[in-house]
Write a structure and sequence with these properties.
This protein has helices at residues 4-7, 18-32, 42-63, 65-75, 90-109, 112-138, 142-170. The protein has 171 residues and is mostly helical.
């Protein structure tokens, strides 16, 4: 079975040409879209639907940098152990605690400026981490990249919580 990169005839690397991905996705969808199979047998329709679903899943995975990084690690035999491996470097855990305190303080004070600052800090950290992960993946250092992806997942979750805090202020 083809991997996501093979499906779209792209090099299996973190650095990705978004336009090439979009174009390849449209090409695959044009070939397998269920509308092209209205007069086909039930079996052919089912296969077309499976391919369309697989193309959508592959596209969503490769389009999202975090999911693409995770997929590349797994594709190269490194299980992220998301459920069981929550060990993180102490400095990262301390930073997490500081951000969580800042979030709690901003929520309590209903301080949108503090939330803006925290949101900007998290965006900058995610951007920095993605660049590091990308370099590690493209250098075939999948074990270190997996550690970075796990950290990125923490940052994404905290970013979502900041978003919820903004929504609560607006309500």
């Amino acid at each position: 079975m083809q991997n996501h990169f093979e499906l779209f005839q792209l090099a299996p690397q973190f650095a990705l040409d978004s336009a090439a991905l979009d174009s390849a996705y449209r090409d695959v969808q044009a070939r397998v879209h269920p509308d092209k199979f209205v007069n086909a047998t039930d079996a052919e329709k089912r296969v077309a639907m499976q391919w369309a679903t697989r193309a959508n899943e592959a596209y969503q995975t490769l389009k999202n940098p975090q999911k693409r990084a995770q997929y590349l690690c797994e594709l190269n035999g490194v299980d992220l152990q998301i459920e069981s491996n929550t060990a993180m470097p102490m400095a990262f855990l301390m930073q997490q605690m500081e951000w969580r305190e800042a979030l709690a303080d901003a929520r309590g004070a209903k301080d949108s400026e503090a939330l803006d600052t925290l949101d900007a800090d998290l965006r900058a950290e995610r951007k920095k981490r993605l660049a590091e992960i990308g370099a590690q993946l493209d250098a075939a250092d999948y074990v270190q990249a997996a550690q970075g992806v796990r950290a990125l997942m923490f940052l994404e979750k905290l970013g979502e919580e900041v978003g919820f805090a903004f929504e609560a202020l607006e309500a």
